[in-house]
Each structure stands twice: as C-alpha cells, then as structure tokens.
Amino acid sequence: MMDELDYNTQYTKQFTKLVQEYEELWEKDAPIRQIIDFCSQHLYTEIVYKRQPAQEESNETLEKTFIPIEDILQKSNKWGDMVLMPSFLKHLQEDDMPLLKRIGEYLMHSRHHEFYHRAFNAIARILSMKNVLPDIIRAFFWTLMRKITWCYCGCVPDDCVDIVMIDNSDIKLAMFKYKHAVHDLIPPGLVFMDAKRHYELSKKMEQAMAEDSISLFELELTLTGKKLTASLLREIMHYRAYNIISHLLRHRTKAMTAILAPQDWLICCCSCADGRGIKVLDTLEQLYPGISKTKDKLGNTPLWYCLYRCGREELEEALIKYGCDPDARNHLNLSYNLCKEAYEIL
After folding, report:
1. pTM for the model
2. Structural domain boundaries enclosing 93
3. Residue 95 in contact with residue 74, Cβ under 8 Å?
4. Are 22 and 43 in contact (CB under 8 A)?
5. DSSP 224-291
6. Is 202 left (phi over 0), alpha (psi -120 to 50) or beta?
7. 232 and 130: one domain?
8. What pLDDT is attached to residue 36?
9. Of 102, 141, 111, 140, which is closest to residue 125 (Cα–Cα)?
10. Helix (H, G, I), strand (E, B), or coil: what is residue 190?
11. What are 167-225's pLDDT values in tens digits?
12. How far apart are the first and last CA of the chain?
C-alpha cells in the first residue's frame, strides 16, 4: 500500500507541476520556440518511485512510469488546443517531427471520447491553411485524418478506404445526414462504402465471386436474368473479383460506364484493390489510353487514392509507369509524395 501511495503522490505532484509550467508559458506570452522546446523535452516525462519489498524480497526496488505530453495537453484545457493553431505549428522544424507525432496522438485522443467534430474541425482548419503552414505539416494531418473513425456510413477506421458508387438518393442522404467539416474533401459522386450491404446473392453467385470465375458469373447472371446494377457491382468489388470486373469492362462497357464513369472505376480500383487490382488498371488503360494521367474534380490523381490503404506498392508502381505524376498537387496543394512522406512520421 505504501508503494502505491508513494507512486500516486509523486505522479500527481509531477503531473500538476508540468501542466502549470506549460500553461504559464502561454499566459506569459513566451516565445513559441520556447514552448516548442518545453513540449519536446517532455514528450515522455519519466517518474521514478520506490516500491516496497514483498515478503520474499529483502530490498526495495525502483519502478518507472511516464507522463506523455498528450496527457499534459489534454489536462490544460484551452492551452492544450494552442498546439493546433498556426502560431505554434508553423514554427515546427524538421527536428520537431517526434513532437508533431505526439500532437497527433493528442488529437486522436478525441475519438476515444467521441469528440469527432473537434478532431474534424481542427484538421479541416489546418488543411485549409495552404499559404500559412508548411506542406509537410498539412500532409501529416491529412494522413492522421485517415485514422479517425469517419461518420460516413458507420465505417471503421481501417476500412474507410472503400470508395465505391451508390445510388444518387443514397449519396444525397449521406451528404446531408453525415455532413461535417471535411465532407468537401470527398469527390462528388463518390462516398465511402456502406458497411450494411443489402444485395442478396445466390450461393452460386457468391461462389463465382469468391473464385473470381468469369464463366460461373456469366452463367449465373444468365440463368437468374439479373442485370448489372450498382448494388451488384458493389458486391463484386467487395469480393475483390478483379477478373470479373475486367471482363465486364471489356465486354459490357456501355452498361459499366452507365453506372460509373471510367475515371471513377479507376478510383474504385485504386481505393479498394490490392496488388491484384492491376488487372483492372491494365484493362482501363487499354480501353482508355492515358487514363492514369487524369485528375478528378478535386485535382487528385489516381495515385492519391492509393494512400488510403497500405500494401499498395505494386499498384502505385504501375500507375507511375503509366505516367501518373506522384508530385502533382490537388485542391489542398498536397501531393501523393508529400502524404507518403508524412505517413512515415506516424
């Protein structure tokens, strides 16, 4: 009991002291560099306390614990959010990247308390400051945004990359119902995949998609008399049946492009596919030479959508081989290369 009391006393005393020192820097209008140095020095503050020996032990031992900087920021209320303001962020230098990562952890702490709008609003404000903040800072926060649970359609953080087509009425519902500070970062006509899919598949159709079998798929489509719809194509993308998608793009081009434009098919491929999705990319390049060089309405190249998920090296290399520019800037004045560099900070 004594060692626990000793620990709690020391922790509380040291924690309170650090919070007070941090707040005093802002209250006294200290130079930003001094505040940055304080935060950098206390990324993890070590506390050493004595642990009383158990009955079978003879000597007391020293135990260690740590106070992370994000806990200090979280406790300091309005002064904690000052690290998200341009006056602080624009003074960060290359050596301050570990601190930037801890600031990201501080912002991510919001999602544990379901303060989604606080995180979204902070990131949206940071991304909009194109001529104020360094590009690498904004790229970092864009990358961080991917890790926050999106409100769209109840997607989980690691699966928010599945961008596919849905009916226009669904798009309107999603945009109005779930509209928040960063809704305009999503290309018009594309929203995140609805986790609750309602299209019923026969067992043979499921088998065809699971095996990515063109012959089984065409046979079942003929026997059931079903037509190609957005819902059916969504299921095919869910099963990652890239042979079937490529086949349909080649042989039912008119029906496929009536549901989704060729460029949007490419975005779906980059957002949802793994390395095997190169089959779809190759097909689209054969049908529409140079499509990999195009940009969407937000100025994003197809490479941009490869950033939404890890393990996409083969697809990225293929896009660059087809002429997709990794340094092209979008409406946020960010590029694929910038965000990929920022991802390494996390």
Report:
1. 0.76
2. 2-145
3. no
4. no
5. HT----HHHHHHHHHTT-HHHHHHHHHHSHHHHHHHS-HHHHHHHHHHH--GGGHHHHHHHHHHSTTG
6. beta
7. no
8. 96
9. 141
10. coil
11. 334 444 444 444 443 444 544 444 434 444 566 888 999 999 999 999 999 999 999 88
12. 39
Question: What is the rounded distance in angstroms from the CA atom of residue 337 to the CA atom of residue 111?
Answer: 27
CB atoms within 10 A of CB 145: 20
3-state secondary structure 287-326: HCCCHHHCCCCCCCCHHHHHCCCCCCHHHHHHHHHCCCCC
Paired tokens of 107: 């912002």
For residues 181 and 179, give the distance between their C-alpha atoms in angstroms, rounded to a whole number: 7
Residue 130 shares a structural domain with residue 159: no
| Distance of alpha carbon 267 from alpha carbon 277, whole angstroms | 11
Amino acid identity at 136: I
Which residues in the chain belong to E strands, given as ranges?
A: 44-51, 61-68, 163-164, 191-192
Amino acid in the structure at residue 285 = E
Both 89 and 71 in one domain: the answer is: yes
Same domain, yes or no, for 331 and 184? yes
Using only the alpha carbons of the chain, give its radius of gyration.
25
Q: Does residue 207 share a domain with residue 126?
A: no
Residues 6+ apart with CB under 8 A from 317: none
- Count of C-beta atoms within a 10 Å radius of residue 248: 22
Clarify whether residues 183 and 76 are in a common domain: no
Hey, is 68 helix, strand or coil?
strand
Q: Residue 169 CB: number of other CB atoms within 10 A?
A: 8
**Tally of structural domains, the chain:** 2
Helices vs strands, H then E, count in the chain: 18, 4
Asked if 199 and 320 sit in the same domain, the reply is yes
Over residues 111-169, the pLDDT tens digits come to 554 555 667 678 878 888 888 899 999 999 888 876 654 443 333 333 333 333 333 34
Instruction: Indicate the average pLDDT of the chain.
Output: 79
Q: What percent of the chain has pLDDT over 90?
A: 39
What CATH number has the domain bearing residue 244? 1.25.40
Given a cut of 50, whether residue 63 has pLDDT beyond it is yes
Nearest-CA neighbor of 162 among 256, 263, 273? 273
**Token output for 337:** 């290369």
